Every structure is written in C-alpha cells, then in structure tokens.
Amino acid sequence: MSCKLLVVIASLLVVASLDRNQVTGRVVEKLGSEGVVLFNFTDPAVDMSGWTEVSDTVREPGKSKALLVLQKTQVFQRAVFFALLNPQPNGAAFAGVRHPIALQLFPASSITIKCRAQGSNSHFKIALKHHGQQPGPVRTPSYEYYFEAPGGDELQYLNFPLLEFKPYINGVLCIDCDPLDTGDITSFGIQVYGGVNEEVKQSGPEALEIDWIKAANYC
Predict the structure, then answer these.
(1) How far is CA 181 from the centre of its chain?
(2) Which residues contact 77 (CB under 8 A, 6 or more apart)?
(3) Alpha carbon 130 to chain centroid, angstroms
(4) Per-residue pLDDT tens for 23-33?
(5) Ranges of residues in the chain whose predicted pLDDT is under 70
(6) Which domain covers residue 84, as residue numbers?
C-alpha cells in the first residue's frame, strides 16, 4: 500500500472518529498528503475555549501557572503558551494546558509542530492520553515526548514520532503500562517541567510560540 494512500485513509479515520462532545468548537481539517491539522492557530476562526490549564496547583504545594492565548498583530496570528515554574525544594514543578481530541492514527504517525521558544527555559513536553482517561484518584499514565524548542528569529518545525511517546505516572516512567493506543488518542497537552526526575532543571518564566500542530504519516 502506497504512503499516499495510507495518509488519505488516516485522514478519513480522523474525521470519522470525531466526537463532537469532545471537540466542541474545533474542526479537524484534511490536508491530503500533508496529513491533518489538529490545531491551526493562524486561522482567524480558531476557537481557544477548549484549552484548560493542568498545572501543579492541582496538588497542595503547587505554585506554577500556565495559559495558552492568541497573539494577534497587524501581520500575523499565532498562539503563545506562557508558563511560570515555581519549583519545590526538590525541583518538582509543572505547568501546562490540554485540549480534548478524538484522533485515530496509524502506529507510524508523527506529530509536527511549528514553534519557537522564548524566555528562561526551552525544554517542554507533549502529553497525550488515550481511551478517554482523565486525571483523578485512579492514576492513569500520560504518554509524553520531551523536547527542546528552538529559539532564534524564525519558527521552526519539530517532528515527534508517536511510537516514541512513553507512559509516565507523576513524572516517573511506567514500566508496566500499556503503550499509547494511537487509534484512540483523546487528549493533547503541552507542558513545561521543573525537572525533579530529569537532568534538566528549570524555573521561572517561559513562552512557546506556536503557529500550528499537525499529525501526518511518514512511510
């Protein structure tokens, strides 16, 4: 089966699998051989209401903050993820946002983001959940990909293979957890982390500028 045919099939599956109760106000756009747009922040009609904060303030010691907002100028529009990390003495801190999504992709698929980092820190992660799992008393894994965002004058393209997303619970790699079900991704998140379990330690303010986020198949 050709790569082009796989991409077309994947695009149709994404649209067919949408749960309008989960993705209110957002339509996934088909892009043929380029895959599908998950979030296009350059679109004047983009709806930001589905994004909610998920930061360490869900725990009693937490003091960090995050939000995702639109930046509109006379010449462009994009989203900016702002965060302030206030780590605990051991370095524990996280700040992020997430959006419900109904996404069905082949295992060989990737997430691509056009972005640029500004501020004190440049290390972020994408956090996915599947099967409709939500944070709560019953701990479920977050499937995460850690990355360093580029700086500089221009936004750049970063590609994250879905097969390389690993399950974490409270920031610790889960050895016994099932792998990410790429056929039933139901939450998409962006986070910045303090680094209690990582070599990179971060604190203070940071920003990630984002034009769009896409999903595509690479054969």
Answers:
(1) 16
(2) 41, 42, 43, 44, 70, 71
(3) 13
(4) 332 334 444 45
(5) 1-34, 106-108, 135-138, 218-219
(6) 41-212
3-state secondary structure of 190: strand
In a domain, 46, yes or no: yes
For residue 192, is it within any domain? yes
Report if residue 167 sits inside a domain. yes
8-state DSSP, 178: P
CA dihedral 148, 197, 202, 117 (to 10 degrees): 20
Q: Is residue 29 part of a domain?
A: no
**Alpha carbon of 172 to those of 141, 142, 167, 198: distances in Å?**
10, 10, 8, 10
Sequence-ordered list of residues with C-beta below 8 angstroms from that of 79, at least 6 positions apart, any chain: 39, 41, 48, 68, 69, 70, 71, 209, 210, 211
pLDDT at 12: 38
Domain tally, the chain: 1
Residue 23 contacts residue 50 (beta carbons within 8 Å): yes
Residue labelled with tokens 């879905």: 162
Residue 100, domain CATH? 2.60.120.260
